[in-house]
Amino acid sequence: SGEASPSAWAAIWEKAVLMCSLGPVGALCRAPQFTVISLPETRQLLRAAMLEVATCAAAAGHQEATPDEVADRIFSLVEKGAKPGLTTSTTRDVITGRPSELFQLTGGIRNAGVALGVPTPTHDLIYAALLPQERRARGDDVYELKG
Predict the structure, then answer these.
(1) What pLDDT band is residue 6 in, cutting at 50, 70 and 90?
(2) Which pLDDT tens digit goes with each residue over 16-50?
(3) CA-CA distance, 29 to 35, in Å (whole number)?
(4) Cβ(6)–Cβ(46) under 8 Å?
(5) Could you please report the per-residue DSSP string of the chain?
């Protein structure tokens, strides 16, 4: 019928928990994954972003586990795989001033949250904080930084 199976949707959402959180949080912090998970404040920020995506997945009916269980499982995978200096492409793009996937990743979760009635305050903050740089990188807002 061309529709994804329930298990395929669960896998897609689990990948979103990782991709839509790790890159944008790393970009916001301007830090590699190991650093993000090593500091209590940024660790909590990443976990909060993951929980919002997992909550959207649950609201869409695509997760059997609780949002907390999903976020914890994906967070554990990040902990196991994080190495000093390892970054996502989104983090590197933001740090180097190139256009990133902000609209697709964080913007996508914000849109899903609106559609599903799920608040996404962490993703809203990430989006707002990275938007000026993203607009500059895309040439939509040209400005110089002067001191």
Answers:
(1) low
(2) 999 999 999 999 999 999 999 999 999 999 999 99
(3) 9
(4) no
(5) --PPPHHHHHHHHHHHHHHHHHHHHHHHHT--HHHHHHSHHHHHHHHHHHHHHHHHHHHTT--SS-HHHHHHHHHHHHHHH--TT---HHHHHHHTT---SHHHHHHHHHHHHHHHT---HHHHHHHHHHHHHHHHHTTSS------
67 backbone dihedrals φ, ψ, rounded to 5° = -55, -40
Residue 133 CB neighbours (<10 A)? 18
- Convert the pLDDT of each residue in 124-139 to its tens digit: 999 999 999 999 999 9
Helix axes 102-116, 6-29, angle to 10 degrees: 120
Would you tell me how many other CB atoms lie within 10 Å of the CB of residue 67? 20
Of 17, 20, 34, 32, nearest to 71 by C-alpha is: 17
For the segment 79-90, the average pLDDT, to the nearest whole number, is: 94
How many angstroms separate the CA atoms of 113 and 67, rounded?
14
User: Counting every residue, how long is the chain?
Assistant: 147
